[in-house]
Design goal:
This protein is of the alpha/beta class. It has 11 helices and 13 strands. It has helices at 35-46, 78-89, 133-153, 167-172, 187-190, 192-201, 227-234, 264-274, 287-294, 304-308, 312-316; strands spanning 7-9, 12-14, 18-20, 51-58, 70-71, 94-100, 114-115, 129-130, 157-162, 210-216, 243-247, 278-281, 299-301. Bound molecules: flavin mononucleotide.
Length: 335
């Protein structure tokens, strides 16, 4: 089974190739980790997920999607995050955290909501403030401070949330970035915010830990970014990243019908073009699918499947009484 082979990048060795992708649980108050988060993530670690990426965690209060999001905008969040890391590490999983600014998709009571341009996501959302240079500088500083805190808390990886129509994605897309200054216009100028963000974070994030980005490879709109445009946005910064997590959608209010493995081709295209390790995600639910996908990419994430079945890895690989992959205390359950 390829899925059970360890995978090493930098100083981080994952015990297998199964990833829990970031999934917002909306259970926090004031951004703080609580008993729910510790139980939720430790359970997946006991379930033998190799690499857990904590849900979108806001770098500023107004960068939350909702008031119930996790936060990393203050040193007050450090103790809770540190405890979470320790509990997940205790069961042998590695743990990263997704650093988030929700941009125009924030519904938090913290304001002002910020975006590259003053265009609302839909009529149900506020019209955001188009960011001033001071706003941009402040948000970049907030990401940098968050990365420093993530290191102090002991995380093995940080993932920039560059997908799903949140702030970074909003700068990259011509649909949401209609600025006429240095941050908008040409594709190169739309990439400037990400470039500055990477330049601010890279020096403060240890080089032996993983620095990754999640992208929306396809915006499902004819005038939006498609895999080729996303590859060109990533190319100038790809040297900085160890791993690219490939998702799609969320930028504009359109519906599409996902099907099994629907984003794997995007992940493969990005891997091939940039020669970088990638995580594939999206309606991957069976051990056979995981094996097939691992022929094309480096790591495989299972999202909703791990919400339904936290012990998926234990169960999936315990067939024929091969219990080596099962958490030791649970082996009797499979013998
Ligand atoms: C409840 C829920 C919350 C999510 N929250 C996030 C998030 O915080 N950050 C993110 O990048 N994606 C988020 N996603 C998307 C998942 O990470 C994943 O990409 C998506 O569910 C597709 O994978 P799946 O078919 O295996 O579930 C969320 C998905 C779900 C179902």
């Amino acid at each position: 089974m390829n899925a059970l082979q360890p995978y090493t990048l930098k100083s981080i060795t994952l015990k297998n190739r199964i990833v829990m992708p970031p999934m917002c649980m909306y259970q926090a108050t004031d951004g703080q980790v609580n008993a729910f988060h510790r139980a939720h993530y430790a359970t997946r670690a006991m379930g033998q997920v190799g690499f857990i990426i904590v849900e979108a965690t806001a770098v500023t209060p107004e960068g939350r999607i909702t008031d119930r999001d996790l936060g990393i905008w203050s040193d007050d969040h450090l103790a809770g995050l540190k405890q979470l890391v320790e509990e997940v590490h205790a069961y042998g999983a590695k743990i990263g955290i997704q650093l988030q600014h929700a941009g125009r998709k924030s519904t938090s009571t913290s304001t002002p909501h910020l975006a590259p341009s003053a265009i609302p996501f839909s009529e149900r959302y506020d019209t955001p403030n188009a960011m001033t240079q001071a706003n941009i500088d402040k948000v970049i500083d907030a990401f940098k401070a968050a990365a420093i805190r993530a290191d102090k808390a002991g995380f093995d990886a940080i993932e920039l949330h560059g997908a799903h129509g949140y702030l970074i994605n909003e700068f990259l897309s011509p649909l949401t970035n209609q600025r006429t200054d240095a941050y908008g216009g040409s594709a190169k100028k739309r990439g400037r915010f990400l470039h500055e963000l990477v330049n601010a974070i890279r020096p403060v994030w240890p080089t032996n830990k993983l620095f990754q980005i999640r992208v929306t490879a396809e915006e499902y709109h004819p005038d939006g970014n498609h895999p080729q445009e996303v590859i060109e946005h990533l190319r100038p910064v790809s040297e900085a990243f160890d791993l690219i997590h490939v998702s799609s959608g969320g930028l504009v209010n359109v519906s599409m019908s996902p099907f099994p493995l629907y984003q794997v081709d995007f992940a493969k295209a990005i891997k091939t073009a940039l020669n970088k390790p990638v995580i594939a995600v999206g309606l991957i639910t069976t051990p056979q699918q995981v094996e097939d996908v691992l022929k094309e990419v480096d790591l495989v994430a299972l999202g909703r499947e791990l919400l339904r079945h936290p012990y998926w890895v234990n169960a999936a690989y315990a067939a024929d009484h091969n219990v080596d992959a099962v958490f030791e205390s649970y082996r009797r359950g499979y013998q």
